[in-house]
Amino acid sequence: MHLNRALSILVAVIVACLSLRALAQPDPIAITPAADIQTHFQFWEDTSGHALIDQVAVLPEEHWSLVGNGSATFGITPSAYWLRFALRNQTSFNLNLIAELGYSQLDDVVFYLYADGARIKELKTGDGRPFYPRDVDHPSMLLRLSLAPEETQTVFVRVATAGSMIVPLRVWREQAFFESAAYELKLHFFYYGCIFVIILINLAVYLSLREKLYLYYALALFGYLLFFASIKGFSFQHLYPQAPLLHAKALLVSIPGLALFSLLFCREFLNTRVNSPRLDKVLIGMMVFELLYLCSAPFLDYHLGIQLASFSALLFFSLLLVAGPVVWMAGERSGAFFTLAWSPLTIGVLATAGRALGVFPESFFTEHAMQIGSGLEAFILTLALADRLYREREDKISAQAASLKEAQSRNIAQHLLTEALTHDPVTGLPNRNRFEWMVEQQLQQAPERRYMVGLARISRLDEINRTLGLARSEWIMKRVAEQMVELAAALPFVHSIRDDQGREERVYHLSGDCFCLLVDVDKAGSDFSALNIALRRLAEPIWLDHLAIELHPRFGAASYPEHGRSAAELIRNAHVGMEIAPRGGNETGVYSPKYDIYNESRLTLMADLRNALQQNQMMLYYQPKQDLESGQIVGVEALIRWHHAERGWVNPADFIPLAEETGVITQLTRWVIGQATSDLADLHNERQRLSVAINISARDLESSELKDALDLALQDNGLQAHALTLEITETAAMRDPARSLKALNVLAEQGYQISIDDFGSGYSSLSYLKQLPASELKLDRSLIEDICISESADVIVSTAIQMARSLGYRVVVEGIEDAETAERLKAKGCDLLQGFWLCKPKPIHELKQWLKDYETDGRAARSLGL
Ligand code: C2E
Ligand code: CA
Ligand code: CA
User: What is the distance in A from the centroid of ligand 2 to the CA of 612?
Assistant: First the structure.
């Protein structure tokens, strides 16, 4: 085939030589003074690519084909193309002309200039060679020539290229060419300048915010810049004129590069991971393709590279064209911006392709369509990024405001809770918790001094309540409180402190009808006359609606150290003193052990308890804990029961405090641990996940026996530590905080669950409780009792639950006696529930039966709509 063609050229050449035809003259392009230069040329396809100028110059006329408009596209072809045109000066002066092949990507271009049948110039150029030397310092393929008046010159051009064979020929008057080139240059530098500034802005934003999005965008724009600069030949001319190979690779690399970073940017900007996972997968697939292409681009054959580039560009553009609307449809603002930005670029690309294919006419717009499109895109996306920055800042500010508000309301809640736990709701006076805490503090600080706890009880309060109603009796209590505070203020020996808000505390409201104070006996000396006067004043009736209300107060007192060494004991004994004071005499009953009917029996009771423990006469009852979420029973609490041969059932509340005081408690706890673990092992036969809670007292924490007893019991019964919960009351944990904390930490490390019992019944410092390694908090029954009838109780419980949960505790409510309270607490977010409403404490065999019944039918009835 090739041989045939070569032969035919040879024949043609021989025929030409034989016929002695001179250099063929095409119809010349006439250059007249007035009219524009109308370019046309003839071409001949040299399929062998080997024809030489001397052969081509004498080719017979019929081999040449005419291109009337001066511009032709031959696609990708291995052939060499020969162009031929003649120029004739029809003016009366010398003309300096420039012939331009306006496509900078042509690899190999050789101009041959003939005048009067003789070759006067030969110029080799094309981007397959080093940029220089050129006739004109410009990326297009240019030939300069000058024509004398009436002179005709003929130009042959040989073009060979691996890319598209696009040959837009144009002949210029020299001045017109330079003017146009200067104008073009201005446009380009405006475009490159704008894009460059946008790149810098995005890089700066990236550096300050460290958001990848802006980096991707800057890199994508850089890809565009490189692409345009390469395709227009600018980068070749200005950056690496001596490296044609690099020039070819730069173009190949810029296409997948800009695509890859555009895709990365698109993914971040549209947040497709969230907004459209399917689109996200497609984008990732496309990215993988572009990445592979990018890595292989430097090694690809130019031809294959260009084909891949067209394919990838087509895919990439269509994909990003639908990406915006997809996300827009999902209701995202960024989708709208993206669609808006990507459309002009797509139009630009279509217009450029249309121009190259000859579908659209040559015009300023079609020629610069891609630059205009990409410029608009960059502008709109920059607006979108600015919008995004603005919104993010707004969001951050409002989030900050919200968290500030939350912190404030948490503080208020914490304050309210502390206030509620330490003050009486009616009189606003500090309550029993506060009094006990204050006395304990005082006894610790100055144990060598002598004190007296004084108590006053409005003994007719019940009666007043019944006859005058709650509102009036509350009014009376407030009056009494005010009067007491006033009287106490006049007595310098009444101990006073200030709370953390600076309020002075002298008189405490112990319970409904009972007030108390602490007297510093050393300060008072032996003179109690002022106190007695004050007490008499207190006994005077109070006037309400012209009615003198008799209060009948009764007074009791107990002294430290004689009558007790702890706040609780002193209060209790002041009560005993009050009971034995003669009625109606306004006299203060001072405690005396000989009147204390409880006292004698205490010792015998403890002896009996020791015996009962030794002889295994005690019993354990179990009360189930229900998980409010699942309705399942997740654990049981072990509660000790004692049936005394003579006294009958003895209440734990009566013997546990005694056992603690006398130290019998360690023995009791040891027994409970042994019994509870063996019962638990038994329960595990059917319900492996059940845990048992054991009540631990402060005394237990102080001895090292506890851990050993626990470990041993686990071992004996084959149990894991986490199956045991140790319930410790907040007051017990507060007795010797440092020591308790240490002991509890050791136990928690071992895997035992720690639970804070009776939360809300004492004055505990939350900041201390927070340090304990507890995972559970049990709200005391006294807190919960009234939530269905008192709004303030309800608020306090809500606050306590919220706070406990925010500190990470599992919240247990105990002492639930009715469904209404249970419903309310579930709604407030409690985790576990315990109480008579669910089940009273039961001996082990009854518990087993109950569990069975519960699982079959009881669960529906007792599990709050689950
Ligand atoms: P606690 O640890 O707060 O135990 C809960 C108490 O509330 C139990 O009283 C239980 O029977 C009772 N209870 C449960 N549900 C309800 C309800 O719905 N309404 C009412 N009114 N009460 C309910 P119990 O058994 O009389 O125990 C009293 C306290 O004695 C316990 O309070 C605990 O501090 C102590 N205690 C009981 N057993 C032991 C023990 O084995 N060791 C130690 N150290 N203390 C124990
Ligand atoms: Ca308990
Ligand atoms: Ca409790």
Answer: 22
User: How do residues 789-828 score in pLDDT, each as one tens digit?
Assistant: 888 788 888 988 988 888 889 999 999 999 999 999 999 9
Query: Is 666:608 a contact under the CB 8 Å cutoff?
Result: no
For residue 429, CA distances in Å to 201, 252, 632, 690 come to: 65, 85, 43, 44
pLDDT of residue 252: 84
Q: Give domain limits for the chain.
A: 2-183, 211-388, 423-595, 601-857
815 CB near ligand 1 (under 6 Å): yes
CA distance 324 to 202: 21
Identify the pLDDT of residue 616: 86
- Give the other-Cβ count within 10 Å of 280's Cβ: 17
Q: Does residue 653's CB lie within 6 angstroms of at least one atom of ligand 1?
A: yes
Can you tell me which atom of ligand 1 is nearest the CA of 817? 18
Contact 794, 813 (CB under 8 A): no
What distance lies between CA 317 and its chain's CA centroid?
Answer: 34
Among candidate residues 159, 30, 42, the one with its CA nearest the CA of residue 97:
30
Q: Which of 656, 665, 727, 777 to mutate to test the pocket of ligand 1 (most atoms within 8 A of CB)?
A: 656
- The CB of 695 under 6 Å from ligand 1? The reply is yes
Contacts 24+ apart (CB under 8 A), 283-290: 283/319, 283/323, 286/259, 286/315, 286/316, 286/319, 287/260, 287/263, 289/315, 290/256, 290/259, 290/260, 290/263, 290/316
**How many CB atoms neighbour CB 425 within 10 A?**
14
The pTM for the full model equals: 0.51
Mean pLDDT by 10 residues, the chain (866 residues): 49 47 74 89 95 92 90 88 95 94 92 93 94 91 95 96 89 94 90 91 91 92 89 90 90 88 93 92 94 88 78 85 92 91 86 72 80 87 87 91 90 84 90 93 93 90 80 90 92 90 92 91 80 83 82 89 90 85 72 69 81 91 95 96 90 88 89 97 94 94 89 95 94 81 94 92 70 92 85 85 89 94 93 95 96 80 53
Of 3.20.20.450, 1.10.3720.10, 3.30.300.20, 3.40.50.720, which CATH number belongs to 601-857? 3.20.20.450
- pLDDT value of residue 866: 44
pLDDT in tens, 689-734: 999 999 999 889 888 889 999 999 999 999 999 999 999 988 788 7
* Nearest one of 378, 372, 370, 373 to 353, comparing CA atoms: 370
Q: Which two tokens stand for residue 830?
A: 């409690």
Fold agreement (423-595, 601-857): no
CA–CA distance, 784 with 786 (Å, rounded to integer)? 6
The CATH architecture annotation of domain 423-595 reads 2-Layer Sandwich (3.30)
User: How far apart, in Å, are the Cα atoms of 691 and each of 539, 678, 719?
Assistant: 55, 12, 10
* pLDDT at position 142: 95
- The arrangement of secondary structure in 2-183, i.e. its CATH architecture, is Sandwich (2.60)
What residue type is 693 in one-letter code?
A
Give the number of the atom of ligand 1 that is nearest the alpha carbon of residue 729: 34
Q: How far is the CA of 759 from the centre of ligand 3 (A)?
A: 8
Nearest-10 crossing angle of helices 174-209, 212-231: 170
CB 452, CB 519: distance < 8 Å: yes
For a pocket test of ligand 1, which of 667, 669, 695 has the largest count of ligand atoms closer than 8 A to its C-beta? 695
Bridge-based pairing of strands 832-833 and 810-813 is parallel
Question: Containing H/E element for 103?
Answer: none
Distance between CA 66 and CA 84 in Å, rounded?
9
CB-ligand 1 contact for 761 (6 Å cutoff)? no
β-bridge mates for residue 590, sequence order:
557
- Return the number of other C-beta atoms located less than 10 Å from residue 809's C-beta: 21
pLDDT the model gives residue 22 = 56
Atom 34 of ligand 1, nearest CA residue: 695
Q: Structure tokens of 671? A: 């027994």
CA 245 – CA 234 distance, rounded (Å)? 15
